[in-house]
What we know:
The chain has a single domain, classed as Porin (Beta Barrel). The strands form 2 sheets. It has an 8-stranded antiparallel β-barrel with strand order 1-2-4-5-6-9-10-11. A two-stranded antiparallel ribbon has the order 7-8. It is mainly beta. Helix content is 9%, strand content 58%. It has 1 helix and 11 strands; from the N terminus they run αβββββββββββ.
Amino acid sequence: MIGFRSQLLKALLFLPAVCSAAPYYGANFSLPVVSKEPSPLHGFQIMLNYDPQIYQWRQFNVYFDGGFSHFYQNLTPYHSTINIYSIAPVVRYTFKRHGPVLPYLELSIGIAYLNQTHIENRNLGIHFSFQDRMGIGALLGASEKLSLGVHALHYSNSHLSSNNSGISIPLVFDIGYRFN
């Protein structure tokens, strides 16, 4: 049993060295189109992503993103803005290529820090939150550098606090670019 553990540890340590694909770095810019809680919510999200290209299995891939979100609403003069810092692993399922389009489905659950515990009249509870994201999109062109997509976004502290109003944005438009 010790020999198996030793071989498994060696394989995991040298996995990045035997992977022939270079990692990808990229950035995404997102705009909320439809907000639910609170409504109306405006703003943007900037995500930087890193895909080491070693967590792949068939059409599944795992990459990582970290980002900054700034949201605001105009209905009240108080608690009208919030900034959110997040980091998350993203699981992507890629479908078969259709010409210059490579469609995908993504799911993500990460952690986030909210600089305010209130937005509008909503009590978010604590500064710590989870970021849930689910979406569809496509990588475009032979080089797959440009991506377009839509996703749903939700922030909640999962009842770690007695107050857990959350933020829900069911439709966010996303454009991304891979640098290499």
